[in-house]
């Protein structure tokens, strides 16, 4: 039940290919089911599909044939190509990704606003939201509230949402307007919520709860050995070196909140531009930093899903068992 709640919260809030050398691990980069963009050396294409199309639209492509996916992708290519020169530039792709992100946030907020505010009042109170989302907690014992699964408890989820609600509540009336509700649901995309996103990230990584991230906690977000004496892959050694050389700037063996902030939200970082660069890296065969329609369609599974790509991923998951 707890796992289902965690997945539901992740949905309400927010397979392999070559990986560009400059692509860093970022714990904020997850798809709508909270699967990371990069899980160690493994790349999650669903993250790119959702960044390119939006989570809702990407699901529609997963049920299409490869031929229909390519046809619709060709139509989207023409929309992205703003100057109609037959090429998609970094700027045009960045603009498209920014548009799909804004569209999804608006649609997701609208859906949940209507769900929690059927009378379309000007605000939603914390009491009403808490009763709707966490009302079942009233029937649980103290032990059940504190019980953890993967380090997460009902009590912890409620506490996190309460704190996030308070930060989003700019006029301190314990109710959220539509704009404030948007910040609450999608804090990673709202400037007033950056500190609470940082705090939540540190809490997720800080397994021993000492307020700092040590090297093993940093690695643990990317790599989990399947057995006790398993030899670490080479990329893990590279990440350990990155921790000591670049992340831990004061050399004390830990990441403070300031160092974590520089890692996950560096100054002047543009998420849409980063994702656009990643997609161009995946499809730009002639390395001219522009994409032709042929390049995009040849690498269509980097941009969109289909029945074929979903079937391939299902086979891969089956092989794991």
UniProtKB/TrEMBL annotation:
Tell me the keywords, alphabetical order.
Calcium, Chaperone, Endoplasmic reticulum, Glycoprotein, Metal-binding, Repeat, Signal
Q: Where is the composition biased (Basic and acidic residues)?
A: 27-46
Question: What is the name of this protein?
Answer: Reticulocalbin-3
Record region (Disordered): 19-46
Does the keyword Signal feature in the UniProt annotation?
Answer: yes
Main location class: endoplasmic reticulum
Offer one Pfam family short name for this entry.
EF-hand_5
**GO CC terms, sorted:** endoplasmic reticulum lumen
Q: Where is the signal peptide, in residue numbers?
A: 1-16
Q: Which domain of life is it from?
A: Eukaryota
Q: Which InterPro entries does the protein's record reference?
A: EF-hand-dom_pair, EF_Hand_1_Ca_BS, EF_hand_dom
Question: Any idea where the EF-hand domain is?
Answer: 68-103, 193-228, 248-270
Citing just one GO molecular function, the answer is: calcium ion binding
């Amino acid at each position: 039940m707890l796992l289902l709640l965690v997945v539901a919260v992740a949905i309400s809030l927010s397979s392999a290919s070559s990986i560009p050398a400059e692509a860093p691990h970022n714990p904020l980069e997850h798809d709508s089911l909270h699967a990371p963009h990069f899980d160690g050396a493994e790349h999650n294409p669903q993250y790119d599909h959702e960044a390119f199309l939006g989570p809702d639209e990407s699901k529609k492509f997963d049920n299409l044939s490869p031929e229909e996916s390519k046809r619709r992708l060709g139509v989207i290519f023409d929309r992205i190509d703003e100057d109609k020169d037959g090429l998609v530039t970094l700027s045009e792709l960045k603009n498209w990704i920014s548009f799909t992100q804004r569209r999804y946030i608006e649609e997701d907020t609208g859906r949940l606003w209507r769900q929690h505010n059927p009378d379309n009042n000007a605000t939603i109170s914390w009491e009403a939201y808490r009763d709707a989302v966490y009302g079942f907690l009233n029937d649980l014992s103290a032990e059940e509230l504190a019980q953890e699964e993967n380090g997460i408890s009902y009590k912890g989820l409620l506490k996190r949402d309460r704190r996030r609600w308070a930060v989003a509540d700019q006029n301190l009336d314990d109710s959220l307007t539509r704009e404030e509700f948007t910040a609450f649901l999608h804090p990673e995309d709202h400037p007033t919520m950056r500190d609470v996103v940082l705090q939540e990230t540190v809490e997720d990584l800080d397994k021993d709860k000492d307020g700092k991230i040590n090297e093993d906690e940093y690695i643990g977000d990317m790599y989990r050995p399947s057995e006790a004496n398993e030899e670490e892959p080479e990329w893990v050694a590279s990440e350990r070196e990155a921790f000591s050389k670049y992340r831990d700037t004061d050399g004390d063996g830990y990441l403070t909140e300031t160092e974590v902030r520089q890692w996950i939200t560096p100054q002047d970082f543009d998420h849409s531009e980063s994702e656009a660069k990643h997609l161009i890296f995946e499809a730009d065969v002639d390395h001219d930093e522009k994409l032709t329609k042929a390049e995009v369609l040849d690498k269509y599974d980097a941009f969109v899903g289909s029945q074929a790509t979903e079937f391939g991923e299902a086979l891969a998951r089956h092989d794991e068992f």
